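Researcher: Structure for this, please.
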Amino acid sequence: MPVVSEMTLLPFDAAMRCAGALILGWWVVRAARNGELRNPLAGQELVRIGPGPLTVGAVFLLFFTLLVFGVMACRALGVEPQATRIPGSAAWHTDQVVQDGAKLAISLLMAAILIRRAPFPAAAREPRRPLRWLRVGVGGALVVLAVTYLQLNAGQIVWHWLEPEAVPPVHPVLQAIQESAWGRWGAVQLVVSAVVIAPLSEELFFRGMLLGMFWRLGGRAWLAVVLSAIGFGLIHAGQPQAVIPLTTMGLILGYVRMRYRSLPACVLVHALFNARTMLIVLLNPDLAGSNW
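Model: Predicted structure, token format:
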């Protein structure tokens, strides 16, 4: 049963999207006045160092190795592989916990690598501004929300036009929130996973490792941003309607990473974006399949 009605959530969510649109408009005007609109990342003198292809490949391989060991551990505990495919089941939650454990372990490794071989060394950074990452993170999250909302709804219109009878798949996490075998603890686990673990691990990999590798190899800021964004979008291919919006989100996050050289800001953008979705569905589970 909904805790908060749709009519109450609608104005609040619309206000956040409007705020994001205003921030984006302000940025466009500012960039135009400064002559940065054509190429906002032009003129940045950055030293091209960072993780190489072998390092990125090793991290990727290690992550999947941890997942394999996790699956083996689940089977040893009597968890049936077929049961892990049912969102919200006890087996599915167990599998998610295993995946989250692998993500946390690999996140620690990636953080250590990026500290040791940072793509943007201290000599190339701007003066320290302690709260800048917070301001950039909140503003970036509002911009991402506004842009991706428009793209998602436009994509749904095209989808319905091409395939009138087709129904876009609902994300397994949103399905699990509605009917979780773990009850409230299941909801807590899913919120922590979506708001903390996923943003941390994905930003360390895509905006840290992968973007840093492309920057080191090519030396072109936008090429690195675009390639890492495409990879980010494609890993969400299980929800095909979200691939283009999330690729756009990856472009914005890549810009934040290159322009402000702040991974914490990227993590915050990602975390707030996910938190907004989780909060809406927790307050009104009936909205799990909507374009919110």
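Researcher: Any notable elements?
Model: DSSP finds nine helices and no strands in the chain. Residues 6-29+43-287 form one domain.
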